[in-house]
Specification:
8 strands; 4-stranded parallel β-sheet; 272 residues; elongated; alpha/beta; 10 helices
Length: 272
Amino acid sequence: MPNPIKRTVFFISDGTGLTVEALGHSLLTQFEDIEFKQIRIPFLDSIEQAQNAVSHINAQGEADGMRPIIFTTLVDQSLAAIVHQADAFCLSYFDTYLAPLEAELGVKSSHTVGRSHGTADSSDYKKRIEAINYTLAHDDGITDNGLEEADVILVAVSRCGKTPTSLYLAMQFGLKAANFPLIPEDFDRGRLPGTLERHRSKLFGLTIQPERLHQIREERRAGSKYAALPNCRFEVAEAEKMMRREGIRWLDSSTKSIEEISTTILQELKLR
């Protein structure tokens, strides 16, 4: 097979860089045959830092033998101008979107650094922190107390992605997400664990291909009954049987990202 094309990508911001990184990722994932080395440069707020960034970018381009790509959300035009001097292909979020939006609205923007993370969203921030705390306290069936507060309750056999999905829902959307494992004792009893039957409208199930589950569990507990393929097939089959019987909506997480799983949950349960 030919060697994959490799390119270095810089995400540069006057803040955390999470916004520009999310923007860049959404575009880069469309190029499956290219291997991207990704470098984030956050909190760039001085001329010296901008010049150092340019030196870093140019040195990386010389090492690669190919100019890097830059995604930037720098608001300060003097700093942005310095970064644009780098020998790189530069995409500016504000140049691409803000200027056309100003033209459409007929109003100049404030061009304020860190505007998207100001005090206006403090209530949202507080809500997310509360959701994260709730989710951590209700991870993996730790307790069924307070489930009336949950926005969603995930159920699945162990290692289907319940915990990372729950935390993503809490961190990204401020949703209180509990999760419960489905274990052989539940299958023997023929009923959902704890008091979940009272909260049926909040339940959402995850399943997975047994072969994929076997692979994941082998990495955790190699050679155990827990990881054995026949046991994985049994648990998955029983969990799916239970979810069908209980009328729980569910999806196969085998080939889906946490983002895809979470989006499906939001749509299916009509959460906002």
